[in-house]
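During the no-cost extension, the postdoctoral fellow (Dr. R.K.) reprocessed legacy sequence entries with the updated structure-token encoder. One reprocessed record is reproduced below for audit purposes.
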Amino acid sequence: MHVRRSRSCSKSEWFGQLDISMSKILATIVFGALVFAITSCHIARFIDDQKLKKVGDLWSDVPRMEGLAPSEAEMPAFVKILMRTALNNLWRLNKKDEDRTPSSGDWVAFATTKSPDDVKGFYTNERMTSFGSWEASKNSTCLNGSEHGFSGVGCVFKKIVNNRGIGLLIVAAPDNEKKQTHVFFVRVETDETRAATPAANTQKGEIKALNGTAPYGIEKRPKPAGLNLDELLPKQVGPYTRTLLEKSDQRGVTPSSIEIEGNSVYATYRAGSKEIFVEFAIAASAENAQATLDNAASETSADFPTDPRVGSIRTEPSYLKRNHESGPFYAWTRGNYYFSASAASEADLDAFMRSFPY
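Re-encoded structure tokens follow.
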């Protein structure tokens, strides 16, 4: 696993991007791979730009803004990084010996005398939803590049058609010398069923009761229940206070609820200068929750550990404990509930986990 970061990230940000969320695959691809790649705290395997095919015009489900003229402009490095990140994350759930070929990736470039803000103003959620049936969003899916280290704007859209997940990236970058704006459109697709299969196939056999003791004795704790976030992610855990609760696909936006098989939720806990980052999700079944745990193992290392002191899967509860280069990490499942916690030191993680209720 190769790590590429263009700015330093806090450990909570690092693990927030490292943890495998229970987000639906398209939300992961579009928001995780594209939006958070822009903000630079994202893991990706980078491949040759030529894996993407250039096309001559926009796709039928993308409206054409007036004033767009075909362009042969070369893409800036940051757009290439976004393209590579998008393609590679189409198979980020696959293990090294499984099919890693993305379904497709196309791009097209235009030039216009209009500004990047004009592009952003045209490609709104409302227009994209009504014109091409792109998924509606109450919040803007665009961001200003000036806040994230590049000039211009970037917007992302997503939808599912005939079981294929489709992600669209639009980047408008100013060319001050030519007094015009270059607009790049990148479209990536994946088969949702196929992408999810490798994770499910790693889990075989009956889930049995844990024979032994899990780290922190989680098997002796009550099982979580319901959908109440304040109960599932308590505002106070021992000396730690929950200071932030946010959606995994919309960082900074506080969730009012959580859906089964929906996007995961991030919680940040603090006690003085000490910080714990928690990811939480609810699957439709214990098998799905444990598939997420197995994916977390493959992201933090190679294979799921066989040492029962640090890992157990196909058991109730299941768990994974790792000392990663960026700090200790612990993930576990209780039934169809998935949790993970990361910290700067093992002592901090121990103090948090001793008080966590589940």
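The chain has nine helices and 19 strands. Residues 1-49, 86-102, 193-203 have pLDDT under 50 and may be disordered. The remaining legacy entries will be reprocessed before the final report is submitted.
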